Amino acid sequence: MDGTLGTDDRYAVERRRAHTYALLGECFHEPTEDRLAELAAVDDETVAIDVSALREATGDEKALRLDHAKLFVGPFELAAPPYESVYVDAEDRVMTDATEAVQAEYRQAGVDVAIDEPADHIAAELEFVSLLVATEVEALEAGDDEAVRHYLDRQYEFLSDHLGRWVSEIADNMRNAAETEFYQVLADETQSFVEGDGQRLANRLNQLETTDDDVEAVLGGDER
Amino acid sequence: MSQHDTTNDTDADEGRRFGLSVGRRDFMKAGAVGAVAASMGTGLTSLASTAEAGGTRDALVEHTGDWKPSTCAGCTSWCSAQILVDDQTNRVIRTRGHEDSKIHGKNDCPRQDLAIQQLYDPDRITQPMKRTNPEKGKDVDPEFEPISWEEAIDMLADEIAELRENEEPEKFMVTRGRYTYLRPILYSYLPQIIGSPNNISHSAICAEAEKFGPMYTEGEWAYRQYDVTESRYVLAWGADPISTNRQVSHYSNEFGDLLDQATVAVVEPRLSSTASKSDEWLPVEPGQDGALASAMAHVILRDGLWHREFVGEFADGENRFVPDKQVDPDTFEESENSQGVVEWWNEELSDKDPEWAAERAGVPADQIERVATEFADAGSRAISWLGGGPVMQVRGSYAAMAIHALNGLVGSVGNRGGTLYAPGTATEDLPAPDEYVDEVAEEGLDNEKIDQRGRLEFPALKDGESGGGVVTNNAADGILDEDPNEIKVLISYWNNFAFSNPESQRWEEALAKIPFHATIETHASETAWFADLILPATHHQFERWGQLRSTGNGYRTINLHTPVLADDPDDPEDVLENGRLWDVKTDETEIPYLLAESLADKGFDNLLEFFDEEFPDPDSGTTLREEYAGDDFRSRELRAQAFSRNAIKLRTQPMWDPAYRNGDYDWPGGEEFDSWEAFRERGIWHTEKWEYRHRWPSEGGEFGTDSGVFEFDGETLRNALEGHADRHDTDVDTVLDVCNYQGRVDDEDAPNAFVPHYEEPYGMGDAESYPFKFVDHKDRLNREGRSANTTWLHEFRDVNPGDEPNKDVTKINPRDAAELGLEDGDPIVIRSPAGEIESEAKLWEGVRPGTVAKTWGQGHWAYGQVAAEEFGEAARGGSNNMVIGADYDRLSGSSVYYGDVQVAIEKR
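The joint structure predicted for all components is written out below.
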């Protein structure tokens, strides 16, 4: 993601949101040396979560890999299945109607999953929201208010229909089963950010709808 | 998991999840997100920009797509299948029998539908994993972590290369479970080129004893097909053809008509699905099936009901088969089709009347009379249908012969309405590797096999040869005792020996002892728990190339497995990209190919040379390396997939290549296709229809026995037993004594060792301490033991008569229960000399007193969150294999599951 955010950036808040979703998405992938190095290098100012807490919690890489496998990969335990379908459709299934709906969202937007996983893998869903926000930022920069509102809507809808429906459940599973501090923190940070962001989106959309404030007034500036 | 149902809040909360009070907007900016994604390029991990956006239909529109051909290997019916794949989401929606199959058409059975639950099971192994805890044991957490395919293959190749360097290739081993006919690559050629004789199949825990009967009467070590549409009497022995056993789709479909036109009788200690819908149920005392078979043969001969054209006739027409009287062989003129019926009568049958059998088998004499008479009255349109139950017993081989010989008596062998085999098929053998076997390998191959087959105590007389068959379960003892040698490196695939073998506890120990073990599976099984490397397998019905076959209704079909999720299954890139949901590969082809490349990196290139030289695309002649030249791992993966495709094309070439079948190939007849694409798109090929009686010598044919005719006197068995005795420099009586049989040569007090005959049940455990006979039987939804993690298996458990949904009950006759003070639902312990399991009592009239019945397949402590009570820790239900001891029907090599297993039942 764009790491050149500055405090003078009028859309810093939005960029932070995009960056945060992308970073969280990365954190659900296998914890490789490269990923951990990337996490260590993240500028706290560019994200909207307590990244230092995550960083401090990384600890032993092997322990992280084992914990990651146990939570999200298996083979003998899948303590926190990383698929939306398992939470909203059927505990024993992937590739359900929910997966199909997520995949349809991606395709409508012009993207597709690039990992060997179903479309509703949590990392993909987080990255998708990040892309929606990044697209909204482009529209902001282009001054296309209509497009901005569209992508705000899309974000809100995706959170409402998908990620927001199950983030608390997977976070609960992670808190119950994670043996490392890192995944405990990741559960808390992911849940509170996604739920908080959904709420903020709702407030903004309400504000746009019910007041005369324009997009610039609602989204500009650097309030958090 | 703490998952709540959050599916009901969509409508009302659509706009309010986070307090939004406005409506949704509808307009689209298709493509913009993709453009942003494209501009970010490598900044993305999970998603990628697509060429085009939009075009997705409304999610509410009904699914559309193509029915693509494949094969269900959920049991040995191996039905040709068609899979509905949604054309927009690439999701498998439905599966059914192949509409073009002349065996079953669109009919399937419930097992085929369970496959979709397996395919989309979140507990599947999704990527290669390696053990990080070097300690192994049931109570030791293996601590698996993901690794890449490249690393995984490299690890495995290192281990094999080391065995080769140390010139001890015999310490390598492959175990197989289910397979497709691409199996020689991994199961035979790989160990052969490496230099190990230790490829051990599952066959002896499948039903080898069942093949013994037809082998030593008519020379066929094979399963039969039964001509039910033409039959007038079906007598099923421990076979449950509308539930389990073979070609269930066909037999289930025909069963209603069969009941209209024929009488169906079932010999089985418990009321099976088939018994519950039949005309007669003969609730036999376990282990006493042979007594019934001898008595029925007695009745048929005594009453002159045998088939004259097949068996022969007394010269003067007077029936001298009089009870307790010997017959002078000179008075009987044998037909050209069979031999030895007089010897069978004199040596075995003359005194085995229904009263004698009734005392042993617990079946009324008049019922034995009636069934035997009506069976024979059907003329040759009668079937004595042999299942595993009566014969996978310590002395089962002889019962197998007696039961199958009934078909000979009534002339139904290969005849209309009787027992048939498969017409000739136009498959081709895969290229042989002999030229690529070096000296190190040659020496390794000279070693004895780890299952000890062929030793004095393990004749395993497949096809008449001493040690010709496998003794699957004994390989555990071979490994534990390092006898004949240590096993250092094991590849196990599509099996779960730590669960599926009797007294499976031994396999846990054996697997823990092997220093390096790679397993290739779809689910993390009990076997995987002991592995060093878990390699995720494709699901056979949806994600890979392969070939199996079905046999029924007079035909054999050749059925393709195709990667149905790829748009163009011939395109390796498409298959790798779209053909699998997770990062999985095919056991029989892709993995051996990648291993060959890695072994070549380490200086041993025979395997790779073999694959490269012998497996070009038979259509174009293009070699694997010409198709994908690179040496990066991605190119190797593409070559591996091209290798899969080429292998299946080579295997089926006569069917689709007119030039090939019109060349030197010995074309057996059958459907003809003009191109690979035409065959692949259809996915099924038919033989000619079975020609009745064509193997009868009177019609110019020949049986596969040593004599060339159907044998009632066991001549071929005599030769095989003498061959085995000679090999060990001993006599047949010693062989039979060591192997726990009662038959002897020329001993008036013992049954004749060669003719089909009755032997008393062996009894595994003393009857005082273990008073009940344990009746194990298979689950209708079993999918060969691989469906335990599907919820439907548990939810619909009551498709097995007497079973209860979501439970693993033990069925006990109410009379026995009263004596034991047991009530419905009481927790119990089942104990045998081998081990014990916990269960729940179910009082049921469908088991005969003195026996308890329990469906096989539960008791998993691994395999998935549904299969296990606590995945990796606590079992759900009880595994029958913990109480079934490791013993054998040694003449066939078959493991014992039935008849002889004795248990005690106690309230917990």
